[in-house]
Specification:
Blueprint: H1 4-9, H2 15-24, H3 32-53, E1 62-66, E2 72-74, H4 75-88, E3 94-99, E4 106-107, E5 117-125, E6 136-144, H5 152-156, E7 163-171, E8 175-180, E9 185-191, E10 196-201, E11 212-214, H6 225-235, E12 240-241, H7 247-257, E13 260-263, E14 274-275, H8 276-289, E15 293-296, E16 299-300, E17 312-313, E18 315-318, H9 320-329
Parallel strand pairs: 3-5, 11-12, 11-13
Antiparallel strand pairs: 1-2, 3-4, 5-6, 6-7, 7-8, 8-9, 9-10, 13-18, 14-17, 15-16, 15-18
Helix pairs in contact: 2-3, 3-4, 6-9
Bound molecules: 6-O-phosphono-alpha-D-fructofuranose (P6P).
Length: 330
């Protein structure tokens, strides 16, 4: 029988109380970042509800438009984007909102008007998998606004090392948030009965190694040769392949179980397919905070100096020992 005092120390901690507790550790904190994370949490709950009802509400399928990348926008891409804009738009500390779905960043307010942070996001990454009920996700990155920079795109084109918070919401068999504000990674699960994200893991660490690799091998013939040699090594070394084609799901599995996730350069996407600012960088911050590593080509992902909002980069992330093996080949 567990003694009551043990229970006292096993806090039932919601995302809200966790964020306030983290804020209290920083005497100079104004609460602005806490407000932003609270808004992201609200957006996550709202999007989770829409994702679960998508087929019932007949909002699967194409929206009939293309995004700036020339990719077909799905109804749920637009819905998720609008939900995030509505949840974040009125937070007084946000200067710029930048979305995969919008060609240009949205400048909400200048630093002189309180615009302290930029929030970049992929509202519903992997949405093409929704019709097959595969886990999809929202990826977010928070950086500090540059008060000297009037141009919205230049303001958000900061290296990943300038992120102050990053994470994802995975709409899978359960709805979870993995979040870092620079002091480790914490994981929360949405308890739909009470409408709260409850903390289930603190200071999450990725296993040092793992024999699961995650890559779209259909592109293997057009990968740079080093990646092909790595795949030959993996095939002959008893590795397991797992690839869902939904980055948040593939990265989350890698974070929890160890191994690597790769999206190398291909003939179709010579710079890689994944976007630096709102996919690769937030995932890189999370992985590094969990003891993992993330590279884009020969460069640490978070050191890449962005040139454009929708810039693509190759991605190699995961357990340090596994990433080191891949880097030996490439
Ligand atoms: P491919 C989804 O479209 C996405 O942006 C990521 O979520 C995913 O990792 C990748 O593209 C899958 O791309 O070329 O393997 O279908």
């Amino acid at each position: 029988m567990q003694h009551d005092d043990d229970l006292v120390h096993q806090n039932l901690m919601s995302l809200q109380t966790h964020v306030l507790a983290e804020e209290a550790k920083h005497p100079g904190a104004t609460g602005d970042l806490s407000w932003i994370i609270s808004a992201i949490s609200l957006a996550g709950k709202t999007i989770a509800n829409k994702v679960r009802r998508a087929r019932l509400d007949d909002v699967l399928g194409a929206h009939g438009t293309e995004n700036v990348q020339g990719e077909e926008q799905l109804k749920m891409d637009v819905i998720a984007n609008e939900i995030i804009m509505r949840c974040l738009g009125d937070r007084a500390s946000i200067a710029v909102l930048a979305s995969e779905e919008d060609e240009e960043p949205r400048i909400l307010r200048r630093s002189g008007d309180g615009g302290k942070y930029c929030v970049l996001f992929d509202p519903l990454d992997g949405s093409s998998n929704l019709d097959s009920c595969v886990g999809v996700g929202t990826i977010f990155s928070v950086t500090v606004n540059d008060p000297k920079e009037a141009d919205g795109e230049k303001t958000v084109c900061q290296p990943g090392t300038r992120q102050v918070a990053a994470g994802y919401i995975l709409y899978g068999s359960s709805t979870i948030i993995c979040l870092t504000t620079g002091d480790g990674v914490d994981m929360f699960v949405l308890d739909q009965a009470i409408g709260s994200f409850l903390r289930v893991r603190t200071k999450l660490r990725i296993p040092e190694s793992g024999t699961t690799y995650s890559i779209n091998e259909a592109n293997a013939e057009t990968f740079p040769e080093g990646y092909q040699r790595y795949l030959q090594f993996a095939h002959s070394s008893g590795y397991t392949s797992r690839y869902i084609g939904s980055m948040v799901s593939d990265v989350h599995r890698t974070l929890i179980r160890g191994g690597i996730f790769l999206y190398p350069p291909t003939a179709k996407n010579p710079d890689g397919k994944l976007r630096l600012l709102y996919e690769a960088n937030p995932m890189a911050m999370l992985l590094e905070q969990a003891g993992g590593v993330s590279y884009s080509g020969d460069v640490r992902t978070m050191d890449v100096q962005p040139e454009r909002l929708h810039q693509r980069v190759p991605v190699l992330l995961g357990s340090p020992a596994e990433v080191a093996k891949v880097r030996e080949f490439i």
